[in-house]
């Protein structure tokens, strides 16, 4: 693992860019540490298919301000795809390959575990879209996460493997998301229920896919069915923060 | 309106039993007031079909401790049905008659509005089962509630009337509730979405009908499909408190 360190001090937190290998690429994650020197519960943050951007890096910072060690991890080798076709060409085969997803998740987890501030017994995973599917796959691989929270990531896994998930699962989705339609919600719920998982699903009325993400301002093509919903985005974030408070409270 | 007052002082709140007429009965509600003398946001709390019991009275007390004026209202004229058949004989025709439900809701609202501590511009309604259906009907009647939160109450209304709901609607339901099955969830969601309501639906995995209610200890017959889920019950309460914090914050 190579660490390229850029230390940025804000009011109380410290952030660091971390390079590490995964999926045949050099990933470029964003690690945020709360003030202090003690061990803290830690959170993996999985980004959307286009990749890790400042929006998810700021989520790591926000969690560090709440007292968590937080790693916004990378899935695309430092790239952020502005072309939806290029994004899909990368994520479609990835999402069909649980082992590749797990490899990306495990590499990110190793970065967290290498951080002395991380309490290895109190790690949660949250993620959005592709990054959410990756943290779910860590659960299905039997990784001892203490909570899994995902938005727009209702992908089912290989048969039977969800039974390895031993922590609460919280999932959010937009009611009008054409990429996660009602049949997919039902399939995800059925998988969790059959596996005996402690699960919840929040359907945000009127929200599209990627509703949690602010509108993308530059001249990027946006796929149909994608759009922001700032009010539900704020609620979904509060729901995630509540999940962490329940399962990995900062003491 | 007849007020029969029993004042009970706890650490900081004041509670009062309130009798008032509705639905041809004398209702016996439980009003809880926070410490102080100023106006506060106020909350209607609708009970389950069996009626108002101490469990929902304590919800009013808990909300008063958070700073709200809270009325746990009555739907059965002071009775709490221990016989499920007697309960169904009362609630089944009631749930089929929106005007009767609105009458019960309006009478409770009048009690809240008659309380000088109530800020009439900041009233929310929450409810469980039948009581949830009643607060939804107040919304469909065009009452200016600032939030509606219901658990196990996904009853649709008369066509088009949901468009009168102008506040956020939060609804929770158990995934295994046979009384509110997936088709009913879908119908409720479709009604809210078609009406342009700001809505959310939380599905609590593995929970049955009335999952929010503690197990009933005495020798009451319990209908099939009903049972407690303490963990989700606590989450649903936190979700309701969060809805109130969003829509009618105590300032």
What would you note in describing this structure?
The structure is a homodimer of 251-residue chains. Chain A is an alpha/beta fold. The first copy, chain A, has one domain (3-246): Alpha/Beta hydrolase fold, catalytic domain (Rossmann fold, 3-Layer(aba) Sandwich), CATH 3.40.50. Chain A is built from 6 helices and 9 strands, in the order ββββαβααβαββαβα. Chain A has a 9-stranded mixed β-sheet with strand order 1-2-3-5-4-6-7-8-9, with helices on both faces. In chain A, strand 6 (118-128), helix 4 (130-140) and strand 7 form a beta-alpha-beta unit. In chain A, helix 3 packs across helix 4 (130-140). Chain A is globular and about 45 Å long. The model of chain A has no long low-confidence stretch (mean pLDDT 94). The interface between A and B is medium-sized, with 24 and 24 residues.
Task: Give descriptors for this structure.
hydrolase (chains A, B), globular, 251 residues, homodimer, AB_hydrolase_fold (chains A, B), alpha/beta, Rossmann fold, 6 helices
Indicate the percent of residues in helices of chain A.
25-40%
Oligomeric state of this protein: homodimer
Shape of chain A: globular
- CATH topology type of chain A: Rossmann fold
* Main sheet: strands, sense, barrel of chain A: 9 strands, mixed
Radius of gyration of chain A: 17 Å
Structural class of the secondary structure composition of chain A? alpha/beta
Largest interface by Cβ-Cβ < 8 Å? A-B, 24 and 24 residues
Family (chains A, B): Belongs to the AB hydrolase superfamily.
GO molecular function, one term (chains A, B): hydrolase activity
Domain Dienelactone hydrolase (chains A, B): 29-246
Organism (chains A, B): Streptomyces alboniger
């Amino acid at each position: 693992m190579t660490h390229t360190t850029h230390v940025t001090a804000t009011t109380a937190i410290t952030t660091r860019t971390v390079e590490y290998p995964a999926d045949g690429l050099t990933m470029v994650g964003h690690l945020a540490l709360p003030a202090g020197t003690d061990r803290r519960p830690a959170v993996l943050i999985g980004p959307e298919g286009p990749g890790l951007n400042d929006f998810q890096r700021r989520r790591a910072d926000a969690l560090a301000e709440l007292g968590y060690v937080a790693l916004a991890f990378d899935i695309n080798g430092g790239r952020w795809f502005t072309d939806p076709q290029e994004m899909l060409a990368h994520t479609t085969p990835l999402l069909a390959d649980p082992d590749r997803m797990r490899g990306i998740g495990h590499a990110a987890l190793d970065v967290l575990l290498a951080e002395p501030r991380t309490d290895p017994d109190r790690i949660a995973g949250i993620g959005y879209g592709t990054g959410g599917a990756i943290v779910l796959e860590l659960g299905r691989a039997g990784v001892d996460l203490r909570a899994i929270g995902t938005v727009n990531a209702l992908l089912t896994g290989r048969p039977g493997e969800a039974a390895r998930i031993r922590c609460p699962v919280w999932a959010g989705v937009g009611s009008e998301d054409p990429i996660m339609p009602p049949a997919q919600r039902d399939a995800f719920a059925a998988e969790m229920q059959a596996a005996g998982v402690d699960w919840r699903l929040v359907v945000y009325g009127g929200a599209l896919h990627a509703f949690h993400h602010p509108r993308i301002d530059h001249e990027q093509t946006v796929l149909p069915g994608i759009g922001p919903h700032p009010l539900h985005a704020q609620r979904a974030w509060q729901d995630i923060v509540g999940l962490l408070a329940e399962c990995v409270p900062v003491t």
